UniProtKB/TrEMBL annotation:
Residues 1-25 form the signal peptide. Gene3D superfamilies: Single-stranded right-handed beta-helix, Pectin lyase-like. It holds the Pfam family Pectinesterase. InterPro entries: Pectin_lyas_fold, Pectin_lyase_fold/virulence, Pectinesterase_Asp_AS, Pectinesterase_cat. It is an enzyme of class 3 (hydrolase). This is Pectinesterase. Transmembrane segments: none annotated. It comes from the Eukaryota. Belongs to the pectinesterase family. Keywords: Aspartyl esterase, Hydrolase, Signal. Residues 71-340 form the Pectinesterase catalytic domain. It catalyses: [(1->4)-alpha-D-galacturonosyl methyl ester](n) + n H2O = [(1->4)-alpha-D-galacturonosyl](n) + n methanol + n H(+).
Length: 355
């Protein structure tokens, strides 16, 4: 399994992702340490496509066209009754933004945005957030294909807004192949706003690409954030699976909240030789082990892992008791991980649409 930051142990840990970015130029300001400043900073600095001159050419062309809006309503009053049908209606090599507006309700569906479908937005009703659930697991589909929602590689410039995505497969009880993904995202440049992800083992497969999770919530028990991507998030326990010492990858969690309901857990472990995970300005509950991180019985990986923390707080933030291989960052060390430069956001990150 490939993963970037991992939680292990039979612990239910929940995470509140609330990252705020800037996309005006390549000279990014740092995320403010004061969480109360985030919303204003985001509104000021993440501009609409119509006033941007820095977007990737393909994205700029797509956003210059009138978006196509598809309505999904289970009562039959929209264009489709299911989300799957709506996604399938998006043509290959789609040239413009397609917004799939999803009415409230419980949708039992396994969704796929395939590699040929670009510029897709799944937009849930903000006043009645839809719940999308499925019970796929590794035994039936394999881990990476078990997701309730899968966004494939090259399904670029994807966006999800106001959604609850759940994998309802049973909690692991020692049976083999119990991994069950809620979301796998492999497309380049994807943003997730007000998205709630729930599962047990391997909830989020942040597989490949540059991704932002803002105002979101991720819940799981074992390695529930994993992958080989580069993302900015708030609130997660993970397992990173990078083996390449020269790869420009890593998970950065900023202004998150790490809480749990049972015994202790680790912020991350060395699933592979060169994992990279950073927690900054994060509130850590007492669910976090004092040592914070684990090399998983592989002391050689302690020499190559990049596990780091910066100005975290709460009873679980115990820098003096952290494992010896954990890096305690200075302001200068932390800066690359608390800006949108970490996900190369200047050419692609847009605010969520409003309908």
């Amino acid at each position: 399994m490939a993963s970037l930051v991992a939680l292990f142990g039979a612990v239910l840990v929940t995470i509140l992702v609330l990252l705020v970015p800037k996309v005006v130029s390549d000279d990014f300001d740092s995320i403010p340490s004061d969480k109360s400043q985030l919303s204003a900073w985001f509104d000021k600095n993440v501009a609409l496509a119509s006033v941007r001159k820095d977007l990737d050419p393909a994205l700029a062309m797509a956003e210059s066209k009138q978006p196509r809006i598809i309505y999904v309503k289970q009562d039959g009053s929209g264009d489709f009754k299911t989300i799957s049908e709506a996604i399938k209606s998006v043509p290959r090599s789609n040239p413009c933004r397609v917004i799939i507006s999803i009415a409230g309700g419980n949708y039992f569906e396994k969704l796929l945005v395939d590699r040929y479908q670009t510029f897709v937005t799944l937009y849930g009703d903000p006043n009645d957030v839809p719940v999308i659930s499925y019970n796929g697991d590794a035994k039936t589909y394999g881990t990476t294909n078990s997701g309730t929602l899968t966004v494939e590689a090259t399904a670029d410039y994807f966006m999800a807004v106001n959604l609850n995505i759940v994998n309802t497969a049973p909690r692991p009880d020692g049976r083999p192949l119990a991994q069950a993904v809620a979301l796998r995202v492999s497309g380049k440049n994807g943003a997730f706003y007000n998205v709630k992800l729930q599962g047990f083992q391997d909830t989020l497969c942040d597989d490949a690409g540059n991704h932002l999770f803002k105002d979101s919530y991720i819940e799981g028990t074992v390695d529930f954030v994993f992958g080989n991507s580069k993302s900015l998030q708030e609130d997660v326990i993970t397992a990173h699976a990078n083996d390449d010492p020269n790869a420009d990858l890593g998970f950065s969690f900023v202004h998150c909240s790490v809480t749990g309901t049972t015994t202790k857990t680790y912020l991350g472990r060395t699933w592979r030789s060169h994992p990279k995970v950073i927690f900054s300005y994060t509130d850590m509950g007492d669910v976090v082990y004092p040592q914070g991180w684990s090399c998983l019985g592989r002391p050689q990986y302690a020499e190559t892992a990049y596990f780091a923390e910066f100005e975290n707080r709460g009873p679980g933030a115990m820098p003096e008791q952290r494992a010896g291989f954990v890096k305690k960052l200075s302001d200068a060390d932390a800066k690359p991980f608390i800006t949108l430069g970490h996900i190369n956001a200047s050419g692609w990150l847009l605010p969520p649409p409003t309908l």
